[in-house]
Write a structure and sequence with these properties.
208 residues, alpha+beta, 4-stranded antiparallel β-sheet, 2 helices, 29% strand, elongated
């Protein structure tokens, strides 16, 4: 009488051996590690792309703000505080309000506008405008509430490019912008552009 059938049934009833359980557990851990690695890599890539996009958006926002102001300006000037590292770009502008058109003799139709780079808060750019035109001075320390932070909430910093000042106005009719927008551990986004006032005849009073 053969005993192979009962033995096979006994083994089947006994289930998996310890070695088989260990091999299955090891294979499961390997699969989990591979899937987790792929997920972490994809998440890091997504964060890097998001940070770079935010940095580029802030750089464009700053450039657009200055270019729009310069396009309406009659003169430009740059002041630098060598002690604090702050930089101030000043512009005398025509008002956009048709009711106070300076070409029609309305003295209130001009504005003073400024863009401030400060090393406070890790590096940031603010803007301020006064209408009617009142001279704007460079603040000491963190700007007060009369200044507007450009790019607020983007969680990025604006740092000076090592090769030059952020603002440069070599002849009072043109401003050269050159700066880096850093994104923590990511590569900085470099911004470099030039804006020129439309009229070569300059008038700076009373702004500077």
């Amino acid at each position: 009488m053969s005993t192979s059938a009962p033995l096979d049934e006994a083994r089947a009833d006994a289930g998996l051996t310890l070695i088989e359980l260990l091999i299955a557990a090891l294979l499961t851990l390997l699969v989990i590690a591979m899937v987790g690695g792929l997920f972490v890599g994809a998440s890091r890539t997504q964060n890097t792309v998001r940070s770079a996009t935010q940095a580029a958006d802030l750089g464009q926002l700053i450039s657009r703000s200055i270019e729009q102001g310069v396009n309406n300006a009659t003169a430009l000037s740059v002041q630098v505080d060598s002690t604090s590292g702050s930089q101030l770009l000043l512009a005398r502008e025509f008002s956009m309000d048709p009711n106070v058109d300076p070409t029609q003799g309305a003295s209130s139709g001009t504005s003073c506008r400024a863009w401030l780079y400060t090393t406070a808060l890790g590096g940031a750019i603010y803007t301020k405008i006064t209408t009617p035109a009142v001279p704007i001075v460079m603040p000491i320390g963190t700007p007060d509430s009369s200044w507007t932070l450009i790019g607020n909430g983007l969680q990025v910093q604006v740092d000076a490019s090592p090769s030059a000042l952020i603002f440069a106005a070599p002849n009072g009719t043109r401003v050269d912008l050159k700066f880096d927008v850093t994104t923590g551990t990511g590569q900085p986004v470099h911004i470099e552009t030039t804006a020129t006032i439309p009229n070569p005849t300059t008038e700076s009073a009373p702004c500077f």
